[in-house]
Amino acid sequence: MLNVVDLCVEIQGSRILRGVNLDVKPGELVCLLGRNGAGKTTTFRTLMGYLRPVSGHLRWHDQDLAKLATWQVAQQGIGFSPEESEVYADLTVEENIELPTWTRTRGRSAAERIAEAYRIFPKLERYRKRGGAELSGGERKMVSIARALALDAELLLLDEPFEGLSPAIIPQVAEGVAAIRQSGKAIVMAESNLHHVPEYIDKLFVIERGEIIYSGSLENALASPDVMSVIAGAVEL
């Protein structure tokens, strides 16, 4: 489904990603874990076409993502919820969620996609007419994920979905992520906090200084002193 092979990325002459390898199969929930600045967001932004690799391969089904513009990546069925949520403040919740149905018209009807978004995050249905500027941080995060979901994407990239959220809202977002996974969509979730990594993930990648230093199960990572020494120094335990 998604294969990233030997990905190298530079920003303003500095090498940020160094030979990153990861893969995602249909329906998998994969976590990319690492400290702030380790390269998680750069990986996502490269997948979405905001950044161009120096070398390496990005394969999505039969497509070379490295050759596509951001809007073309979205049309291929990859949805992105950035860390900052990036909800449009001058649009309502309803309008924010509808946007991807105009961008990608193939697949299910717009009504079906929007209904699924509200099913995953039922709280948002009560806020349909509320402006983006009136939302809390947790509500903006739900809108951001719901908007990516309304793209009818096969793969969702969720960058720090729990970062900065109040303890009261985290379970609601976590339930939404679990429901999306149960619907059969693949998810790659970037996290800097080990406590936010769901126990039921299919695969864990640990990134440090732009390199993948571990790939495998969460259970094996927790049992490895070498991996845990990196995680302990990179994330809040």
Descriptive notes:
The chain is of the alpha/beta class and 237 residues long. The chain has a single domain (2-234), classed as P-loop containing nucleotide triphosphate hydrolases (Rossmann fold, 3-Layer(aba) Sandwich). It contains eight helices and ten strands. The protein has helices at residues 40-47, 70-75, 93-103, 110-120, 137-149, 170-182, 218-222, 225-234; strands at 2-11, 14-24, 29-33, 55-60, 63-64, 78-81, 155-159, 186-191, 203-208, 211-216. It has a six-stranded mixed beta sheet, with helices on both faces. It has a four-stranded antiparallel beta sheet with strand order 2-1-4-5, with helices on one face. Helix 4 runs antiparallel to helix 5 (137-149).
